Amino acid sequence: MGKTGTLRFRHSQAIWVAAVIAFLGTLPLATSRWYLLPLLLVPAAVGGWAWRAGTDADRAGVRIRALLGERRIAWSEIVELASDPRGQAVVRLRDGRTAVLPAVRAADLPGLVAASGQPLGEPRPTPDQPGD
After folding, report:
1. Which end of the chain is more exposed for a tag (fewer CB within 10 A), N or C?
2. Is residue 97 a contact partner of residue 110, using CB atoms and an 8 Å limit?
3. Pick from 121, 112, 118, 79: which is nearest to 6 by CA?
C-alpha cells in the first residue's frame, strides 16, 4: 500500500511502452498527409488508458478508473469478491449487479481484502445485523 493507505492495481507498463512505440511508428505515416493525422489518436488513446485505468482500494471502498471516468464503490455495497473464468476479479453488489475490477487478478484478491481493513475470512457485519 502507498503512503495514503491506498492499494493501487494497474495494468502492465509494457502496454504503455508499446503505445509509445506505436505512436512513434505511426508518426511518419500520419504526417505524410493531413487526413492521416487521426491515426495518431489510436496509440495515444491506448497509452492514456494504460496510464490511467485500474483499481484503487482503501478502507472506504474501491475506485474503478477508466480512460475517461471513474466509479467509487463503498465496501458496504460489495457482497462478494470473486474471479471470472479468465482470472479477472469481479465484485457482486447489493443490488445484484456485477463490476469488473480492472487490473486486479484472482491472485490479488487477498491483498484487496486486506486493503479494506478487515481480516481475510471474517464475515463483515451487514446493516441488518448489528456488529460487536
Report:
1. C
2. no
3. 112
CA distance 62 to 54: 10
CB 42 within 8 A of CB 34: no
Identify the bridge partners of residue 91 per DSSP, sorted by sequence position. Answer: 81, 99
C-alpha cell at 12: 502492465
Q: Name the band, by pLDDT with cuts 50, 70 and 90, for residue 117.
A: confident
Q: Tell me if 100 sits within 8 A of 89, measured CB to CB.
A: yes
Pair 79, 93: CB distance under 8 Å: yes
C-alpha cell of residue 68: 475517461
pTM: 0.75
C-alpha cell at 40: 495518431
Instruction: Extract the C-alpha cell encoding 48.
Output: 492514456
